What does this fold into?
Amino acid sequence: MTLTIDSAKSKVIGEQLLKHIFCYRRLSSNRGCCAQEPCRMCLAPHLPKIEFFIKQKKPIHFILPAFPAKSSNKQKVLGPLPDMGERISLQFLQSLCDRIRDIYAPGAQITICSDGRVFSDLVCVKDEDVTAYGREIKNILDDINADAIDVFNLEDLFGELSFDEMRQKLILNYAESIETIRFQVKNDPDKRNLFNGIHRFLFEDYLVLQPFKSRNKIQTESKKSAYGVIQRSNAWSVAIAEKFPQALRFSIHPQPYHSEKIGIYTIETKDAWGTPWHNVAVYDGKKFLLMKRSQAESMRASLVWHNDRPSHFVLSNTLISPLN
It folds into this structure.
């Protein structure tokens, strides 16, 4: 017989865990009371789900669509493979699960639902680079003994189809129309904020990757692709919610206070949209933070190699470069 925890106790534990997790919340706005202290409405979308696991004394399951592939823009990143930015981020996620285990003995499990295959063609990343990136993510997880993290991707959902066929099937089975996405972006400030962030990423990358095109043409094409990325990302969200219906949802993107997704920082960055796959890791003598490669180079930071490939930067006044 499975022992259970009563509702009152599960709610207390759930609130305690959520408030700890919210210390790392990535918010679309840092103004207002909720940015300092989460209110009941901040907790409300997540508390029933977390209580579901606590009542049954099971590990709390989180899903995180993230770790897609490195940007092809060499002004931002060091190359197509994961580097110190991804390693630090994965170490953080594992340590978060470890800290949850200290509060709640069954602990937590995070499934990284890698979305690189979902929109690689729209962000100018080759499918073979997505494959190599994903393989190295699994190698890092093994290397850091990340027993609380696993990976799920488009291939796990659709099996032996070609990559193009997988993307087409995802859109056919789970996607809203582009017209619906346009309407939402026009009328919902949070969705417009998401669109603007993705459009900015794509515009920056297209400028570098397609220098033979005018800025106006790139502006038009990157805007069209941004709608496509949101369409497929939303479809992927629906698909993984169907696959993992009880799981709590993390997001690598900034989220509103009362969102059904918990935006989360995995590594320090001054840009609320910064991720390891659009930036490089820079050690300032105390901690790692993310910035664009071009910015690190303009600061005359020193490039550090590890395992025969570039890993991260160290600021010039830093004497020691840790390799975590």
Residues 7-314 form one domain.
